[in-house]
C-alpha cells in the first residue's frame, strides 16, 4: 500500500477547482433556491422570469434555477469556474449562462427581474467607491420592481464575533474540508484578512490549498448608509442565513449574518 501523494499550494484558489468547491458548499443549494424563489414571489413587484448572479462561481445556484424554468445568467472573474459552469449547462442541453466580468462594472444587454449574491462576495469589493459602483450597476440592470438579494456578514458592536468557520463534505471516497479564519482585522481601515485552507482527499492524492481573502467590513449603520447612496433601491426585508422566509429579522448590535432584499424603485 502506497502513501497518498500530497500537493500543497500556497497562494492558490479553491475557485480554480470548482468541482471541489461545489461539493463542500453545495449542500444547501436546494434550500437556497427555495428561499430565492420565495423572495421573488413575496417581495418582487413583477413576475420574475430572468435572473442574474454576480460572482456566480461554479454556477451551482444558476443550474438549479434553470432546471426550475428560470432564464438565468451570471458572471465571475474566475475563468475555471466560468468554464465549469458553462460545461455543466451544455451537458444538460442548456445554453451556457456564465461569462467573465468584474461585478463592480457589470453591464447587461437586457434588464433582469431579479439578482442575488448570497455568499459574502459583495465584501470582496475593496472600498466604498467600488461597492457603490456595483450597486449602481445592479440597479441599472434591474427592471422596476425587481429584486437584488445580498448576503454578507456584519461587524457586530456587541457580543462575540464569529472569526472562524468550517465546512466538510464527502462523496464516495472523496472528501473536502474547508476552514476559514481571521488572520488580521483592521477596524479603522474596515479590512479583514482571512486565511482559507482547503484539504481535498482521495485514496491516492491529497491536495492542500491555502489562500488569503480580503473582505471589507460593514457595521449595520455603514451598510445602511451605503444602500441609501443608491437611491434606486429600497430595503424591503432582512433575513439571516437560516433562509427562513417567514421569519425576517431586525438588525441589532449582535447581528452578524444578514440577507438584505433590495427592491428596484
Question: Describe it for me?
Answer:
The chain has 265 residues and is α/β, with parallel strands linked by helices. It folds into 2 domains: 5-14 and 157-216, N-terminal domain of TfIIb; 28-154 and 218-264, Rossmann fold (3-Layer(aba) Sandwich). Helices cover 26% and strands 37% of the residues. The protein has helices at residues 18-25, 29-43, 60-67, 79-91, 128-141, 220-229; strands at 5-10, 50-54, 71-76, 98-100, 112-117, 142-153, 164-171, 174-186, 191-201, 205-216, 233-239, 257-264. A 7-stranded mixed β-sheet has the order 4-3-2-5-6-12-11. A 5-stranded mixed β-sheet has the order 1-10-9-8-7, with helices on one face. Strand 3, helix 4 (79-91) and strand 4 (98-100) form a beta-alpha-beta unit. Helix 2 packs across helix 3. The longest helix has 15 residues, at 29-43. The radius of gyration is 19 Å and the shape is globular. The mean pLDDT is 95.
